[in-house]
Amino acid sequence: MTIRVLLADDQALMRRGFKVLIDGTKDIDVVGEASTGREAVELARMTRADVVIMDIRMPDMDGITATKLITSDEDLAGVRVLILTTFEIDEYLFGALRAGASGFLGKSGEPDELLEAIRTVHGGDSLLSPVATRTLIANFLAQPNRTATPPGRLASLTDREREVLTLVAAGLSNHEIAQHLVVSPATTKTHINRAMTKLDAHDRAQLVIIAYETGLVRPGPVG
Q: Which DSSP state fits 156?
């Protein structure tokens, strides 16, 4: 199955480079290009893209706002947004994940990393490594003057789902969680999917955010 990709970046030269790279693969196709956030939202609806590669700083509408509009649109359910930016800082990462982005990649990365990132988010996984996600979110949540999410949001979870959520936030893979709980990977995936549904989480990365925001997992140093 071919992955349909929409490129959203205000620099034409950057889009051209991405397109040349992607068009050289057999399993990924570029189906549209947008130069503004607003155009990205419109083209996401028109092209039925599977993955939107989204820049953050764009005219008319920034990438984070555009991401939120795409991921909150029921007609675009299943569309994944991969944030690709020069500005690799915690505030942008957190804002992007809260908006529903499935991944966050710096433009300084290698070409093969971008292709693998597209495949990763299309498969429903978070692009960020567990350690990177946990470290950056913990650092951001440790900052003063942030608004916490009430712990009551977790009330709908079963004890096992809370346990799984804790392990997800700790950076464990499905296989590692299955080994820890002595269950099958399929059972682990079922628990994660149920937690995502109950918490209205777009993907695994947002589960990590919720775990920190509700206090289920406390920010702390990561070695």
A: T
Tell me the pTM: 0.68
Q: Top-level CATH class of 3-128?
A: alpha beta
- The H-assigned helical ranges of the chain are 12-23, 37-47, 63-71, 90-98, 111-122, 130-141, 159-169, 174-181, 185-199, 204-213
**C-alpha 214, offset from chain centre:** 19
**β-bridge mates for residue 165, sequence order:** none
User: In the CATH hierarchy, which fold is given to the domain comprising 148-213?
Assistant: Arc Repressor Mutant, subunit A (1.10.10)
SS3 call for 144: coil
Q: Are the C-beta atoms of 5 and 63 separated by less than 8 Å?
A: no
pLDDT in tens, 40-67: 999 999 999 999 999 988 988 999 999 9
